[in-house]
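User: Show me an example of a complex going from sequences to structure tokens.

Assistant: Sure. Here are the input components:
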Amino acid sequence: MPTPYPALLVAGFRRFSTYRAATAAGALTNTVFGAVKAAVLVGTVAAAGGSVSGYGAAQAATFAWVTQALLAPVAVFADDELAQRVRTGDVAVDLARPVDLQLAAWADDLGRAAYTVLPRGLPPLAVGALTTGLALPGRVDGYLLAVVALALGVSISFGCRHLVNLSAFWLTDVRGLTTLYTVVATVLTGLSVPVGWFPPWLAVLAAATPFPSMLQAPVDVLTGRVAGAEALRVLATQVAWLGAVLLLGRVVLARGSRRLVVQGG
Amino acid sequence: MGEPSPYRAVLASRVRAQFSYRVSFASDVVANVAVGVSEFAVVYVVFSRVDTLGGLDVWQAALVFALANLTFALADLAVGHLDRLPRHLRAGTLDAFLLRPASLLGQLATSEVSLKRLGRVGVALAVLVVALPRTDAPADLRTAALLVTATVGGTAVFAAVFVLAGALQFWLVEGAEAVNSITYGGSNAASYPASVFPDPLRWAFTYVVPATFVAYLPVLTLLGLPGPAGSPSWLGWCSPAAALVVAGVAGLAWRAGVRYYTGAGS
């Protein structure tokens, strides 16, 4: 019997491709925020005399647009889909299915990301190219590595969002936690400001979390900030974080599902 | 128009409801404090690298941040839940509101009051109190009058933008997130010195969504600083006027939206 996970990935892709207006609306909002972020980061570089931590004006603007382009595929903001299924008890149906819950959700999320990458990514990049210009390297091998780094970033993000959702087995109401996760992720992934600009204490804090591996890492590889052996080191760090969050997810799911009590039947 | 008392009764029940789930409410407030702090992280990181941004030093920029966040959080507390309109449209539950002998906007606006936003209000006030004495703002009546005008006017601007965003939902429904570019996007744009924006962006956030009226222009007036394009300093007093214009547009859009709405017969 063939493995069901590729089919689940395709199903995830198709599920999200149904909501075309929502996709367009999200791309518009990402682009407006990108314009403000590009202006603030370029203004900072200008005030610093032309360069901040290796970012010139062109690199700062490119960073702003590329992070906005990858925000949706990486899904920096937490959702509560699985948490709601835990709260209502629907998760019992998920657990009864003859597939692994974590792998099925991971496949679904990769399908979601694969769909969003072009319609949510191209509009901010196009507006960026037309207004500030984009400083992207012209090397094919860099882009291939960037695809791998992005897939890893999406997967690490999935692993962490999955953990937030699984906390519903204990908390029931996860709204506070999802908001907290989202605000921490917004800063530590590098979505607001490049991680390389952080003052030392914040940089140390960020490096101790998987967040920079979700967004800053693929953006660094895509924009050529890291290349060659250094890029491979970034990818290795991502693989390590992915292993850690997926393993933790399995442990938490196993313990949480033992706690689960569903009424009725 | 209905009597004001039913609105008050609903609001009082919403307040009681939030206090009856204490742990949830406390965690929501903490999360909203975190939202305010993380928004400030951008200002903090930027000024760890530079001494001025767009001609403002760290305390002047912090003042812009504080006013923008204070007014947005107050508006969000009062009417931010209007962004739930698409749920009513999809589920068909809007018809129940339309059957009641009271204004639809009045009912929806008073259907909730998100006290958890007080967390973000608190962060903005803290930044304001710390930053204000560290600027050259004179400690006089004019400063107080300008801050009160800016707070009332800015809150009204964002409240009107929330109503406008709600009105657009009648047409957008599934594309609801598009209005985030004027609500959250407006708040985001209002938080920074607009002098760093390229001209088209500054015009859009001055004349389309009057975000610069909320915090940047009042701070310039307060501190006697010149504007980017030599804008007159009395513009800093004009956020209530900007709010009236947006409220007028929002009112017309809301009426058109309600007329456009067709129930699903549920």
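The lines above are the inputs; the final block is the predicted structure for all two components together. Chain B touches chain A through 43 residues (CB under 8 Å).
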